[in-house]
Predict the 3D structure of the following.
Amino acid sequence: MSLVADPPPPAPPDERGRRRSDPPPDGRRAPRNWKTLLSYVLGLLLVLVGGFFAFVAYGMISSGDDFKTSTQKIVERFPFVASPQTVFGKERIYVVLLGIDFNTDDKGMQYSKGARSDTIMVAGIDFQAKAIKLISILRDSQALVQGRQTKINEAYALGGPKLAQQVIGDFLALPKNEKGASFDRYVVVNANGLKDFVNAIGGIEVPVTETMDYDDNWGHLFIHFKPGLQHMTGEKAMEYSRFRHDACSDVCRVRRQQQVIQITIAKLKTQKFNDLLHIGALIGALNKNILTNLTFDEEKSLAWHFRDINLADIKTDTLKYVRVTDDEVVVPDPAQKAQLVAELLGPYGNVTPPPATELAAVKPATVHVVVENGSGISGLATAVSAKLTKLGYVVDSVANADTFGYDTTQIRTATNVPNVGERVRADLGVPTASVAPATDATPGPRSIVTVIVGRDYPVATATAVPTSSLAPAH
């Protein structure tokens, strides 16, 4: 017995008045089935993948790069990351940055609920100028929190990011944006955030200028440093940035925080952690310990846009105070606060690279230099010393660095004179050298620069176009 099925009904006409089974009006026939369509898609993918690897192979042959390096260079050329102007819809944003510490319960266990903001910074980020301005606010500054005058760091403990933004914005008298808020975004980092991020980039080299000894068994804080350039893991960097048991207490602590930020940025630049493949991993390492209303696309856009920022384009200031009350509340200087806010809201300039006239204003004869060999290449520090001496610098000493593991030449400045580090870098002819502050203490009357010669020095000086056309000073 057999069954005869009725033929299927005709396909209904679509919105253009023809059946889906009819041939297109131009005479071409649609693909017969999904297998045909799939073959087209696979063919297109093969062409794209083949083209990509052809570019990679060409890069390997033409530049001598290995496969990974050539792949990274190709990836960086693709427009995967939108500009921050497009992402945020404006040329500048204002961000409040808060670092919170852990509290300790009666059993010595750490927890973050109700913690105060141990670090308070306000950042103006200008996309067009590629410049950043940071204002650090002492955590004990006097502010109005829920109707009473108290320490500004209580705001986060009482109301989280929302109240902290409102209190800090009112404290600085910042204008409101289109959403009625003083800040476009907030970033709250717990005590492990800095530690994990510094560990993710392999640690940092920090010049310590004083003996630091402090133990807090209850707070799980043990700080012990001796003067000198020291390699710091994330744990050590966190301890260093939290120390405040010296002559200037929180003021010096804020300076150390700013110093660690600048040294970290310098390493991100010079160690090539600023490609797309690394940016996502670094953001992931930090995001484990942060609370923010920045989206991942916004974070990636900011990191990519500012990957090559010059440290000279990051301006840092600290809000000063005029007195301390009996309750140890710091009363800010109203005149200086108004000035810093005006600069935060005002025009941003890009000083990358510094104008030749400003570099020329730095007189090598007034700059004292300590040269250290961090490369392990015999005689390199002596050669650098001779070069700087010939250019008119005063070389105080030549020695080995704490390690021969420096891939990048580092220039550490201990002076308030602007552009000293940039001038030394230009005269050395090493554009890859890192320039960063060398001390968190008040600089003395002399301009002192420490040059740690890295393994990049011989290659850079042999191939780089000189970054300075300044005549040697006498």
Q: What stands out?
A: The longest strand covers residues 117-126.
